[in-house]
From TrEMBL:
Protein name per Swiss-Prot or TrEMBL: endo-1,4-beta-xylanase
EC number in record: 3.2.1.8
UniProt GO MF annotations: endo-1,4-beta-xylanase activity
Domain GH10: 266-575
GO biological process, one term: xylan catabolic process
Amino acid sequence: MFTPDNFTIDGVNRCGRMFLAFVLLAGCFPAVSLAQATAITPPDGGRDVVSFGPDQEIEFRSQNVVADANWIETADMPFATAYSIKSDTRFSAPENMRLRIPIDGSVSKGDVVLISFWMRRPGAGGQPNNAYFFVDADSNSTSYQYNLSAYREWVQHVRSFVAKSDFDTAESCLRIQLGEAGTQVQIADLRLINYGPDRDIATLPKSTIMYKGREEDAAWRTQALARIEKIRKGDLTITVVDADGNPLPNARVHVAMQKHAFGFGNAVNSEVLGAAESDFPINPKKKIIVTWDEAQKYRQVVKKYFDRVTFESELRPHVWKGLKSDNAPSRRKYDLFFNKTLPWLLENNISVRGHYIAWAPMDFNAIEKQFVGDPEAHRSWLWQHMRDVLPATSHFVSEWDTINHIIGWGKHTYEKEYGGPEIYAEIMAEARRLAPDATHAINEGKVLPDGYKREPYKEIIRYLNEQGQPADIVGFMAHFGLASLTPPEELLKVYDEFGEIAPKLQLSEFDVDAGDDEALQADYFRDVMIASFSHPNFVAIVQWGFWEKMHWKPAAALWREDWSIKPAGEVFVDLVANQWWTDETTKTDDEGTCHVRGFLGDYQVHVQSGAQSATATVTLPRRGNQIRIQLTN
């Protein structure tokens, strides 16, 4: 019998226990557990059309980086050897390192082909890096492309496709681009199997992941949904009277929610939001062209589903400095930002989060890296930046990521450069002095996924509390990937722990990258939303992108490039605009009263009795509210 516990990898790290299982989906093939180091074995009936092993010649090429490749032995895995590529560069263009493996068997148009391989990035951090697999029918035609995130752990990938054309026996190959995969990547047990034209592709296995708590009847989810009903709703009492103050029975009352009390936000691009039609098509990011029609859809989504935004770059120190420069491109961007984008947001009642004031890891931040070894010069620069940006943005920024990546990484964090954490309390104090009406947050990653920064993050939160400079909001960079789908019950436990020392929590950079497994992305996205919304300390969920074309991780988007909605997008819309939204019509009783239990937020109440009508606005807090509406005409 299938249960999630049958397919669990039980790995222990410093922050707790990870429960992930890499299984297959298809027909009646049995699922397997990697805890037993058992591979997903493709079924019989096909022909291997690629040779991959130490006895075969593999073509490896590199450019713009120093890299080499060789075969190595492995242990405790379902394969004895792996192809290992090492580079001197952490991150470069995908094509800077590439493999070419000839396809030495025939493939015809319509054939069903399965690809299976294992991959890992040994010694890597928790963040995934990208790899790109192309099955080329000839030098000018790609029959199948598979993009994936490669992690530090061995993960088996199994996918199938239908050949789009006949393969050229001299030029067809499996081409792999690894320039973004990091300094070391290993590939093992790579197979390309042709099952011919008569095989039903639905019967072939496909790898996916089961995380603990994904099952439909999970107890944690039932409890969380019940908690949402209790803590995210309030009772609204509406009394309707006539011109003389007498109760009006049987009056029609429409209670329509206008805005959540809880925050739902996203990261946006200023130019796509604010540029005029005459400016399009625009190029807001390298190699990305956005049309006017696409920008209109982009704005519609922002307006309909989000009450706050974080700009991807406009308020970062180096970009802010550029906006103030006296040259034509800078003046255009400044005018666009201040005179087009911001007014549009304010007009639509969408607030702005500033990202960011201070960035603690100085090693990878060019504008601050110059101050390594000279904390006094850095302090002078940072204090000047705060004096510049905070007053200038006070009329539109309601919340700041005041210290971003406060734990950070590398050899030169603020704490190391200044000789202690005092600098963080001093930054919070100065930011509050210059922007007293704003909310000041701190932000860090590797707390929810991976988890190795949980204890250091708690330590700095306690320190700021003790110094009288507590963070108004504690933010989590919730970038989840295939190997970091922290079980929802564990998330709730972490929320409880942080809630003891921080009254307000939020997801400040939320996304789920599950590669091409859209069902997995949708399920985990749903469960993180439910777990977070159900926790009493949470005040907001801010995502880091929504449209594939403008998303830093395209696979994590909610809407595809053509604006068709993905399953995860359907989950988001259903939760925020349906399940967690109140729009109810009822009638008053004999006492002229009716009661509605709704989600906390702002409402418009419209009352109709015969030819008489009236509309009123009301805010519904958790303690509930009452409103009396008098019909006078």
